[in-house]
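Predict structure. Chain length: 178.
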Amino acid sequence: MVIYAKIRRMFYREHLTISEIQRRTSLSRNTIKKWLQEPGGSEPKYQRAKTTGKLTPFEPRLLLALEADSHRPKRDRRTALMLFEAMQKEGFTGGYTIVTDFIRNRRSHAATVTGKSAFVPLKFEFGEAFQFDWSEEWLVIGGIHRKIVSRQLKPMFSRQLLIEKLLTHRFNNEHYSS
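Prediction complete.
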């Protein structure tokens, strides 16, 4: 708040009277006195009084419904309209927009808190993690069609890729050959 600092500077540094500050800023004398009585360096903060609205008595039930829906598959969750209609049956007289605003705020808040927003760094120490894959290719070697099995191993600490091609391999104690 620039005007707050300006009023304090006029009074304490320039030694102007409250009446002169009032003339220069067009603020009321009461506002100027109040701001001058504040402890130094703290700007006044507007605090809205908590009022109860039409939705307030229904918030606990709505929160329970949203919590229950968060554990269901997405296709089975209740829509805002379904929740609104259920609240109307319980005696809610407010509008649909109030309900949708509340639900939207809660769902966006829940999405930021849950693991959906977690960040997992992809840095690994030597030998800590790797990717492994099997693949089969058919090649013609000396005019004969052969099935080649390959193993790919990629350590996560580097970009090096190890590929090994096998004409035969063992898997689950069974012997396969091509």
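Summary: The first strand starts at residue 130 and ends at 141.
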